[in-house]
Amino acid sequence: MRNILLLNPNSSKEVTGGLRNVVASANNEEATITTESAPEGAPNSINDTATGVQSAIECYKRDYTNYDGVIVACFSQHPLIPMLKEKYRFKQIIGVLEASITAALLSPAKKFGFVTTSTHWIDEFENAVRDTIGASSSERYVGTTCSDFAVVELRTANEESVNAKLIQCAQELVDRGARTIILGCAGMAGKSAHIKQQLQEKTNQRVDVIDGIGVAVDQMKMLVKLL
């Protein structure tokens, strides 16, 4: 039995609860998924580089010895990922951003884009795509749209308003040619099925919607088998 930690690197219990609901059915005889929040000293929301660094410092203080793999559930090139890889060299450490890009590149739908929270993440996502592909640009990546909801607001604001905005952002990407949409924030976990249905009804197109948390868990369950 392998033990996997799904770590919300902010201290929001609402976001962690959403993650826990998404992966509730992922446990099996081969792997157990534990979902936890960052320590209370971590920021409630990761909105920029500074809060990402604060989050990494607080999360790094805890012990991860009992886990075979750790998923850092933040859609960013979170500094905790290389920190843990350096300290725990014989464990699997991944982030949801890289897992989502990998899944999009494997999709039969050629073009993809992100729906995220704010414009701060646009450059970071472009850099992550470039690093993953190994090229300065790609015709497959159509860009990123922003909901203007912070990560915690995605779980606490009016659900109908949140979903409507996410669908609007996703539809803009479809209009640019994307047929795979990545929900680029942990606060969007669990919304992929609804958004996919609404998108296909509105656009009359086959559109795949990637929940980064789900694909990261699937990838990690395969990776820990290699240990």
TrEMBL record:
Pfam families, per database record: Asp_Glu_race (PF01177)
Top-rank lineage group of the source organism: Eukaryota
InterPro entries in UniProt: Asp/Glu/hydantoin_racemase, Hydantoin_racemase-like, Iso_Racemase_Enz_sf
Gene3D superfamilies registered for this protein in UniProt: 3.40.50.12500
MF terms in GO: amino-acid racemase activity
Similarity comment text for this entry: Belongs to the HyuE racemase family.
Family matches, as PANTHER family: PROTEIN DCG1
Protein name, as recorded: Asp/Glu/hydantoin racemase
Species: Wallemia mellicola (strain ATCC MYA-4683 / CBS 633.66)
